[in-house]
Design a protein that fits this description.
Order of helices and strands: HHHHHHHHHHHHHHHH
Number of strands: 0
Shape: elongated
Strand content: under 5%
Helix content: over 70%
Largest sheet: none
Number of helices: 16
Structural class: mainly alpha
Length: about 290
C-alpha cells in the first residue's frame, strides 16, 4: 500500500483517492496529496515539511523503511531550500527510527547528518552523529569501518582542542585494532597520539602502553588487568565490551608463581629422599 502511494506521488497521478486504499492508509494519502500540491504551489521548505510529516505518520503505522525513505527525501529538499541544519536534524531523526531495524541504514544516515553538520562548521553536532555511527559499527562488528570512523572523530576533537576526549578515542581505536588482530595498527595509533598535547605521560597513555606490552607478550593476565581498569570499564558500553572480551593471540599465557617455578626447577622429590627427611625429623626421638 505504501509503495502504491509513493508511486502515485512520483508519477503525478490525478489527485483522486484510489478506492483500493484502506481506511488506515487514507490519512497518509491525504498528506501526500497535500505534499504534492504544496510542492507545486508553495515553498520548497513547506513541501519538505509535508514529506517529513508523512514519514512520521508511516512511523506510527510501523512502516519504518518507507518512513525513512520519505524523511530522506525531505532532507534533500531542505538542502535544496538552503536549510542544511533542518536537513541534518531530519537525517538524525530517520536514523533513530531505523536503528533497531536496520543498523546499517542508521549508520549511513548518521554519517550523512555528520557530513552536513561538518559542512556548516557545527562540529559538536557532527561529532555526536559520528559517535553514534562508530558505536553502531562496533556493535555490528564492522571493525574496519569503525576504526576509520573513530579516526574521523579523533581528528575533529583534536581540531577543536578537546584533547582529553582524543585520549579516550585513542583507547577505543586500540581496542578495535586489537580485535581486528592488527597489533601494528594499534601500536601506530598510540605512537601517533604522542603528538596530542598532554597524551604522553597521561594515565591513558600509560594504560595503553601496558596493554600493548601484554598483548605483544601474549600475557592474558596483564591484558585483562588493564582492561578491567576504571579507565576502560567506564567507557561507552560498546567499547567497554571490547576490552572485557579481548583475548591475546593463541589464548595467552598465565603468569606462574615464583614457588611453582622453583619447584619445577628442582624437579619432583624421590621416594628415597622423602624417607630420609622423615628419618632426620625423628632422629632425636620424641619429646
Amino acid at each position: 500500500m505504501i509503495v502504491q502511494l509513493l508511486n502515485m506521488e512520483r508519477q503525478l497521478l490525478p489527485l483522486k483517492m484510489p478506492s483500493s486504499l484502506t481506511r488506515q492508509g487514507k490519512p497518509v494519502y491525504e498528506k501526500l496529496k497535500h505534499m504534492r500540491t504544496t510542492k507545486l504551489t508553495s515553498s520548497l521548505f513547506h513541501a519538505a515539511k509535508a514529506y517529513e510529516q508523512a514519514g512520521m505518520m508511516l512511523k506510527e503505522m510501523q512502516r519504518l523503511p518507507e518512513a525513512v525513505q520519505l524523511i530522506e527525501k525531505a532532507s534533500m529538499m531542505y538542502l535544496e531550500n538552503g536549510t542544511p541544519d533542518t536537513a541534518a536534524i531530519a537525517l538524525e531523526r530517520a536514523g533513530k527510527l531505523i536503528e533497531n531495524v536496520s543498523p546499517e541504514k542508521a549508520v549511513q544516515l548518521y554519517q550523512q547528518a555528520a557530513s552536513v553538520f561538518e559542512n556548516e562548521e557545527r562540529l559538536r553536532q557532527a561529532l555526536e552523529m559520528l559517535g553514534k555511527a562508530s558505536r553502531l559499527l562496533v556493535r555490528g562488528r564492522r571493525l574496519d569501518e569503525a576504526a576509520l570512523s573513530l579516526q574521523k572523530e579523533k581528528s575533529i576533537y583534536k581540531e577543536i582542542e578537546n584533547y582529553p576526549t582524543c585520549y579516550k578515542k585513542t583507547i577505543a581505536q586500540v581496542l578495535v585494532h586489537l580485535h581486528r588482530n592488527d597489533y601494528v595498527a594499534a601500536e601506530r595509533c598510540v605512537r601517533e597520539s604522542y603528538s596530542i598535547p598532554g597524551f604522553n605521560g597521561s594515565e591513558d597513555c600509560a594504560a595503553l602502553e601496558q596493554l600493548l606490552e601484554g598483548y605483544d607478550q601474549q600475557d592474558q593476565d596483564q591484558v585483562s588487568e588493564v582492561c578491567n581498569l576504571p579507565l576502560f570499564k567506564y567507557m561507552d558500553n560498546d567499547y567497554a565490551k571490547l576490552g572485557l572480551t579481548l583475548v591475546v593471540p593463541g589464548g595467552g599465557i598465565k603468569k606462574k608463581s615464583p614457588n611453582a617455578t622453583q619447584d619445577k626447577t628442582r624437579g619432583p622429590a624421590t621416594v628415597g629422599s622423602h624417607a630420609d627427611e622423615e628419618e632426620d625429623e625423628y632422629s632425636g626421638g620424641l619429646c
